[in-house]
Amino acid sequence: MQKEDKVFIRDCALYVKGELKEIKLKGDPKVVRLFADVLSESRKFYLALQSGELKDVIPLLERKRRASRLLRYKTGYVWPL
Question: Cα-flanking dihedrals φ and ψ of residue 76, to 5°?
Fold first, then answer.
């Protein structure tokens, strides 16, 4: 894995955990939208896990999985989070 990839994944994890307020993405607007969607859904899922309400977690997990699958289908990138 290249250093840039490691930094990107680290920054994504920090964003999902709420330790970074934003991540700046550049590139094809359609691809950026896919990454933004999967980041958003991952963050919502993480926050629901922290709240401990299982009834809230399951639907958000499904939304995160859907966003991850779409990202992989459209770009070939496997979402690690």
Answer: 85, -5
Residues in Cβ contact with 72 at an 8 Å cutoff, skipping those fewer than 6 apart: 78, 79
Q: Which residue has the higher pLDDT, 52 or 62?
A: 62
Would you kindly state where each structural domain of the chain is located, as residue ranges? 3-75
Residue 63 near residue 45 (C-beta atoms within 8 A) = yes
More confident residue, 15 or 55: 15
Average pLDDT of the chain is 93
**Cα–Cα distance between 3 and 63 in angstroms, integer?**
29
Dihedral sign computed on CA atoms, order 72, 76, 80, 81: negative
Rg of the Cα atoms in the chain? 13
Residues found in the chain: 81
| pTM, entire model | 0.89
pLDDT value of position 4? 81
